[in-house]
């Protein structure tokens, strides 16, 4: 199995707290991006102390209360399933804070991390603030919810976005990359994909590859899997009959999303 593909761990780390995924710089090749998925039983609280990292706490499904021990946001979260295709609520917490996530209902929560040295205000990113974008044409259509885009100055290095791709369509396509710290042409952003499928037995194909093909992995990605994108192009293809969801976390030396399309495939944009 590719080292870039992670299946759910589903490790119970406390009563009612299941660590589904935990991508760190210690257990991956990533230096900037960290990512957790936790499942919380109703009434259970997960607490974490941030060092020099910021965190975007995404209410993937269910309702949660989030506190940084100064401010508390209650009953955040808008959906029982991501496939309701409604934007959801998130909370941004910067470095050197303790945060608590209390499950009001059973909840799946994404914890999206990146480096942070400068404390910024804790902030509710409400569902209504998500920029919703219909991107692409033909069989390349997808819907994007911009949760924490580079146009939002709330964070130091973190970018968070979720993408829905319908049956028979492609996303992150034409293949693009952002693995060179070479602005204004391209920025360097590592990336993680947290995938869900509807119906859940579905799968997508995701390829992660570089121009010189020194990295070239094509993965069958199933419901609940994570794909790590340290470098390279990273297109996703969705088979007929299924809807794909993924949550992206990106971070790098500069908080700018400037990608470079694979020149072999950029022509499709000019039809
Ligand atoms: O670089 C960003 C990620 O690859 C996705 O968010 C991608 O941009 C989604 C898309 O455009 O299809």
Question: What report would you give on this structure?
Answer:
By secondary structure, the protein is an all-beta fold. The chain has one domain (5-270): Jelly Rolls (Sandwich). Helix content is 0%, strand content 50%. It is built from no helices and 26 strands. Strands 1-23-20-25-15-14-13 form a 7-stranded antiparallel beta sheet, with no helix packed on it. Strand 13 (131-135) and strand 14 (142-148) form a beta hairpin. The chain is globular and about 50 Å long. The N and C termini lie far apart (37 Å). Bound molecules: the ligand O=C[C@H](O)[C@@H](O)[C@H](O)CC(=O)O.
Ions, cofactors and other ligands present here are: ligand LJL3ZJ5K
CATH 2nd-level architecture: Sandwich
- The residue ranges in which pLDDT falls below 50 over 5 or more consecutive positions are none
Q: Structural class, from helix and strand content?
A: mainly beta
| Main β sheet profile | 7 strands, antiparallel
Number of helices: 0
Oligomer class: single chain
Give the CATH level 1 class: Mainly Beta
Question: What is the CATH H-level superfamily?
Answer: Jelly Rolls
GO molecular function: 5-deoxy-D-glucuronate isomerase activity; glucuronate isomerase activity
Enzyme class: isomerase
Pathway: Polyol metabolism; myo-inositol degradation into acetyl-CoA; acetyl-CoA from myo-inositol: step 4/7
Organism: Metabacillus litoralis
């Amino acid at each position: 199995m590719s080292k870039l593909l992670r299946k759910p761990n589903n490790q119970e780390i406390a009563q009612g707290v299941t660590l589904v995924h935990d991508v760190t710089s210690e257990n991956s090749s990533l230096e900037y991006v960290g990512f957790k998925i936790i499942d919380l039983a109703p009434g259970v609280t997960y607490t974490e102390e941030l060092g020099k990292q910021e965190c975007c706490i995404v209410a993937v499904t269910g309702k949660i209360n989030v506190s940084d021990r100064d401010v508390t946001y209650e009953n955040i979260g808008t959906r029982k399933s991501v496939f309701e295709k409604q934007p959801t609520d998130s909370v941004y917490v910067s470095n050197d804070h303790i945060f608590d996530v209390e499950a009001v209902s059973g909840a799946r929560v994404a914890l999206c991390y990146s480096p942070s040295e400068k404390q910024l205000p804790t902030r509710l990113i409400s569902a209504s603030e998500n920029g919703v974008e219909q991107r692409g044409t033909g069989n390349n259509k997808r819907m994007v919810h911009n949760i924490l885009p580079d146009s939002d100055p709330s964070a130091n290095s973190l970018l968070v976005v979720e993408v829905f791709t319908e049956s028979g369509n492609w996303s992150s396509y034409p293949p693009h990359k952002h693995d060179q710290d070479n602005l204004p042409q391209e920025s360097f952003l590592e990336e993680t994909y947290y995938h869900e499928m509807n119906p859940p037995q579905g799968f997508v194909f995701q390829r992660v590859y570089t121009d010189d093909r020194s990295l070239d992995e094509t993965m069958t990605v199933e419901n609940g899997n994570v794909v790590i994108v340290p470098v390279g192009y990273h297109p996703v293809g969705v088979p007929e009959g299924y809807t794909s969801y993924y949550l992206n976390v990106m971070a790098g030396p500069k908080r700018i999303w400037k990608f470079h399309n694979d020149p072999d495939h950029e022509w499709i944009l000019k039809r």
